[in-house]
Specification:
The protein is an alpha/beta fold and 505 residues long. The protein contains 15 helices and 25 strands. Helix 2 crosses helix 3, helix 7 packs across helix 8 and helix 10 packs across helix 11. The structure holds malonyl-coenzyme A and adenosine monophosphate.
Amino acid sequence: MANTLYDTLFGQHQGKTTPFLQMENGTIITHCDFLELTSQYAHQFCKMGLQPGDRVAVQIAKSPQALAVYAACVQAGLVFLPLNTAYTADEVSYFVENSGARVLLCDAKRADALELIAKSCGAVLETMNADGTGSFTAKAAENPIDFTPVSRTADDLAAFLYTSGTTGRSKGAMLTQGNLLSNCQALVKEWEFTADDTLLHALPIFHTHGLFVATNVSLLTGGKVLFLPKFDLDSLLELMSQATAMMGVPTFYTRLLNDPRFTREAVEHMRLFVSGSAPLLAETHVKFQERTGHRILERYGMTETNMITSNPYNGERRAGTVGFPLPGVEIKITDSSTGEELALGEIGDIEVRGPNVFKGYWQMPEKTAEELRENGFFITGDLGQIDEDGYLSIVGRNKDLIISGGYNIYPKEIEVLLDDKEGVLESAVIGVPHPDFGETVVAILVAEKNTDLDLETIADDIGSSLAKFKHPQRILTLPELPRNTMGKVQKKELREQYKDMFVIA
Ligand code: MLC
Ligand code: AMP
């Protein structure tokens, strides 16, 4: 039996000395170098007693070694579980425990904070630092540089990505080999990626966009990746001339446009700019074209579904829309209350079905059943509309979610912490427009009778258990929250009230 994901993304490059990753300082990691590391890591996981299907949780900086851990998991049939490096120990603890991970890889600087957590969850803690050193890599260095991939089917799990929920509890989205493979195959075709491409990669590799879209597409074609540790405007501008394509969240594009060095000449070699993970303002789209002559290609995806739709590579890339379903993917717009399909042009729930759609949430059959219908359609929680030419537009969300700089933040998770603070009667966390991050977090508190809230202390308290990007940028108080006749808090009203809070005049 084969391991198709491994063979197709990685194994096909066996023995090739072609460049895979080019680091900021010019260092090249060839496909062959990369696969040798991968095999050594796969051996190491086996030595640690891991069996196919076991979860490997990693909270490590973006590096070639970190990427090789992903590849090693695929090769050894393990489930890769990457975690945002901004997560606090409290947050990591939940993921390790919930997933039952057998290993937790982290930076040595975090080892003290995470050692006990790993132990209490029955996971072994090993370190891997931003420069690739660490206890895991040191142990793996003596291992053989080849490893026979463990047999896997398309239905076997390849990764867990945690996505927060409206109840405040994160859910582990189970992604199969088939989900990942079908999606990058579709994208390579749609976006015409070839081995001649050089992708400018400044996204994190703990999310779908940077890992399964950007990296898998490059692995499938054998193209080169300019692998930046993170988004840095200067590096991006410097390396742009060597690239042919870039993928980013809208913040990448607004930041580039705010820099006068970003000119038509600076993008002469580029053939494609892709945007996704958050709404791209039509205004950004237009400004980008005026400045560079390129039309950004906007696509739409989710952790649970990988990529769903894309504007056409050849054909009109329509601002404010996310294009058409990818080959093999079906979408429909349905009535939220009845589930019935709506007519063209009507606004309703976006549902999606196809080989890209995940298997369900780890150990949450009820949650899975709520969102993944028996007929295979997944209810995205996004509201959309399909126009007469077939273009999908996302017009809103049927889920209480804030997307800040491409990171998802679920208000409920913050409200639960705020409501717990002394003197707080209730809270509402909302997203308001932000010039850099698209949206940002604002918390509104109602104090208990005759209580003065110490907002600074509250911010500090909740901050210690939440990743920085989730911290409210402002905390305000109101005598009461607006409610409808059913008693439901009217967040729409609050969002309207505070929509100009961060707008630059
Ligand atoms: C960083 N900070 C953020 C933030 N990122 N705050 C709010 N929202 C964010 N997204 C905060 C840090 O905590 C820090 O706070 C300060 O900003 C500077 O940190 P930084 O690391 O220097 O930030 P910066 O490099 O400017 O990062 C911004 C960014 C980054 C937009 C480049 O967030 C990013 O790479 N986002 C991409 C997210 C992504 O890949 N999403 C894909 C999800 S997949 P302080 O207080 O310490 O100064 C998905 C499916 C799909 O959604 O369709 O793709
Ligand atoms: P995540 O759960 O992190 O995978 O985020 C998925 C969510 O990001 C989707 O449900 C959408 O709400 C949003 N999203 C992704 N791509 C786009 C896009 N191009 N435009 C608007 N929203 C998007």
